[in-house]
Amino acid sequence: MTRAHHSDSIQKRILIITVSCLLGMCVIISSVSYYLFRNYLQHSMIQGTETSLQLLSDTINGSMSDIYQMVRFCQTSRDVATYIENNPNPGSVLSVATYDRISEEFNNNPSNDYMTRLAVITNEHFLQIVSASYSSTRDLSLEVPRLSFFEELLDSDDYNFSTGFIRDPFYRNGKNVLPVIRPITYKFNSVQGGFLFIEISSDLFTDALERYNTAEDSPVLLTFGEHHYIYEDNVLKEMDASYNILNDLSSSAMIDGIGIYEIQTTRGAQRIVVTAPLNMPDCYVSQIISHKEHRNQLLLLLCILGGVIISILGIGVLLMMMLNRMISVPVAKISDKMRRISKGDFARDPSIEWNHELGDIGRGINDLAENVSLLMNRRLEDEKQKKDLEYKMLQSQINPHFIYNTLNSIKWMATIQGAEGISEMTTALAKLLKSISKGTKLLVPIREELSLLQDYFTIQSYRYGGTITMDVKVDDESILDLHIIKFTLQPLVENAIFHGIEPKGSGHINIHLYYEAAGGSDTLRSLRIDVTDDGVGMSREKAEQILCSNDDGSSDFFREIGVSNVQKRLQYEFGAEYGITVESVEGEYTTMSIHIPART
C-alpha cells in the first residue's frame, strides 16, 4: 500500500511537472508569439497602408501634374503673352486666336475634366474656358481680384493651396473647388501683365478616394495647409484635426517621404497615422491605421493560443500536420496559378476554387484573371472604334474657306452676268455661314444679331419671290449696343414666315425694339423686342405648343434652334422671369415678344 501510494505520488508529480512544463512552454510560446505577432501585424498593416497611400498619392499627383502642365503652358506660351501685352477686345482676331490655342491645349490635357474653370485675365478683359453647366457672364477681370485670397495666392513664390476648398464663387450651386492663381508676364520681360485663374474640382480627389478601399475605422484625411478634410460618404468634410504626436516612427518607413506617427487624439485614444506628401506645397494625404482590424486579428490570435494551451501536445502536432496539408498544397497551387498568369495565361482554373478561405482567394484570382483578359480585349476594341471614329470625323470635315471662296466665285460670276439677285443672295449666304461658323461668344450686340437676321431674310425674300417684307424699328440707338443671346431673333422670324405668312401667300413682318419698365419700376428698364406678322395667326393652344415643343419644322440651317429652344436659352441665361410671350388673333396677326434685361 505504501509503495502504491508513493508510486501514485510520483506519477502525480511527473504529471504535474509535465503539465506545468507544457503549460509554461505554452504560456511562454503564447506570450512571445503574441508579442511578435502584434508587432508583425502592426508593421504589416503600416507597410500595406504605405503602399496603398503611395498609389493614391501617385494618382492624385498625376492629375495635378497635368494641371501644372496647363499652368506652365499659359505662363510660357507666346500666344498668351501676346494676348496679355496687347489686351485686345473680346471678339477680336487676336482674342479668338488666343482662345482657340488655349482651348486646344486644354482639350488635349488628360485632366481637363477636373479644371471646372480656366481663365486668362488681363486688367480689362479675360478669356475663359468653362463647361456649359458652369458658364457665367460675370466679368472675371473685375470679380477675381476682389476675392479675399487673391493677393496671397498671386504673390506666392510657389503654388499656394492654403485656402483649402471653397465654393465656386461664380456659380451659385457649384461644387467645392481648389483655386489656383498664378501670374503671367509680358513676352520680353518679367513684368506681370495678367494672371491665370484655375478652379480645380474636388472630384480630382474624391474620384481617387472612391476607388480606395479602407476599413470602417480607418479614414483617409486630406491636408491643405491649416485645412483638414476627412473622406466620408463619398464627400470631403472639413474637420478639426487636433492631436498630439507621441512618437515619430518615420525611420521605419519602407518608402522614402512617408511619415509614420503615433498620435493621441483629443479624446485620449492612441492611434497610428501614415502620411504621404503630395506634389502640392504643404499638402498631404493621410490614413489612420484601423484599430478594429488590428484588435480583431489580436483576438483571433488569443483564441488560437487559448486553444493551444488547453490542448495536448499530440493533438497540437496532429493539427499542425493537418494544417500543413490543408495550407501548403493550396498555396502551392495558387502560386503556380499566379506564375501562369504572369506568363499571360488568363484561363480559369477550377482546381483552386476550394470550399474554404483559400478557395475564396482562388476564386478571386480566377475572377481577376478573367477581368484582366476582358479589360485587355475591351481596350483593343475601344482603340479600334476610336480609330474608326477618327477616320469618319476626318472624312466629314469641310474646309470653311473653300465654301467661302466658292460662294465668292459664284457671286462674281453672277455679277459679271448681270444676275444681281443671285449675287445678293450668294453674298447673304456667305455672310450667314461665316457668322454661324465663327466665334465662341454666347452674347452678341443686337447690332450684330440684326445683321445676321438681315442676311437670313435676304435669302428668304428671294426664296418667296419678294412676297414677304420686313421692317425693323429701333426706338433708341443705344439699344443696338445692348447684348442678346446669339441666334435669338432668327427662329422667331422663321416661325413667322413658315407658320404665319406662308399659308397666306404673302405678308409683312415688323420688328420693334424698345425699352419697357422692369418689375413695375420707373427707374429700372428691360428690353422688349416684338416680332409681328400679319399672317394667319394661331390659337392659344398652338402658341403654348410652340413655346414647349422642339418640333418647329425649322429650316435646314437652323433645325436645332427652335422657338422653344430660344425660350429655354433665354430663361437659363437671364432667369425664369424673362423669355418669350405670344399674342395672336387667328386670321389677323401674331406677335412674339422677347423680354430680356438691358445689358451692355
Which features characterize this protein?
600 residues; alpha+beta; 5-stranded antiparallel β-sheet; 21% strand; disordered N terminus
What does this structure look like?
By secondary structure, this protein is an alpha+beta fold. It has helices at 2-76, 78-86, 93-108, 140-143, 150-155, 203-210, 291-309, 313-342, 357-396, 400-416, 420-437, 446-463, 489-501, 540-548, 563-574, and strands spanning 115-121, 126-130, 166-167, 176-185, 192-201, 220-224, 227-232, 235-239, 243-248, 259-265, 270-277, 283-288, 443-445, 468-474, 483-485, 507-517, 525-533, 579-585, 589-597. Strand 6 and strand 7 form a beta hairpin. The longest helix is centred in the N-terminal third of the chain and has 75 residues, at 2-76. It starts with a helix and ends with a strand.
Short account of what is shown:
By secondary structure, this protein is of the alpha+beta class.
